[in-house]
Amino acid sequence: MLQAFHHVAIICSDYALSRAFYVDTLGLTILNEALREERQSWKLDLAIPGGGQIELFSFPAPPPRPSRPEAQGLRHLAFTVPDVAAAKQTLEAAGVAVEPIRVDEFTGKRFTFFNDPDGLPLELYEA
Question: At a CB cut-off of 8 Å and minimum separation 6, what does 83 contact?
């Protein structure tokens, strides 16, 4: 069912500091940077060498984990699948609650979320 690692999304408490760390200190390449004015949120897409990405988000006054979904720290882990609807059906048949399928406003790709047994948000992202 899973094909590859796609991205890790991180909500930071200080966008400028985190951006400088990931870009300047770690040397990740910026793929896209967008201010989502309606949410007072930055979204920075960074390429991970060898494949995969980090999505760095900012939100006004994010609460510390464990609240969800717009909290400081790890937001979710995403896995690439060939067909989100089929993967969702497989998970639901196994008794896993899966959110409705949505479409990424930036890429047009379909995705959905579910949780691991400890409540960690996981995403299925269509290849």
Answer: 126
